[in-house]
Write a structure and sequence with these properties.
This protein is about 25% helix and about 30% strand. The chain contains three helices and eight strands, in the order E-H-E-H-E-E-H-E-E-E-E.
Length: about 180
Amino acid sequence: MRMAKEKAVLMDEIGLQRAMMRIAHEIVEHNKGTDDLCIVGIRSRGQSLAKLIHDDILKIENTDVPCGDLDIYFYRDDLTHITDSPVVRKADLPFSIVGKKVVLVDDVLYTGRTARAAIEAIFSLGRPDSIQFAALIDRGHRELPIRADYVGKSIPTSRRELVSVRIPPFDTETQVLLMEMDET
């Protein structure tokens, strides 16, 4: 059985909030404002981080940009095959992404497979003007040519390590931990 033990605290609540505020500023600056901008969090923790970015942009620009979340489960390429004809569920957002600058938000960028699946899900909804990617943590080990446009913190990790983002409503505390996988 594989267990994980805490190795280090990478970010406390204040550090996480600062990183998200910095990312919000970078998004507004890069896009020269908020025109045609929308924020889309990748379920599950990416949706909480997207909401933080949305709220920070509201504070910075006094503009309520569209914010939603995306379930990419059926767009993943690493699912176990149950059938030769899998059913792919269409993504659903409460606003149109056509012609918009879409900022995808996730907690940890690792292999790039989640980001690839999210891009595919976005394109199932129409053609945006651009897709940008924000990640709280970039831990390396890419398997695909994907990079984040906005990063809260880059942490070189080993494959035996795990980055655990803890944030409400999924967790009781707000922090980012580096965990060591233990073979027991």
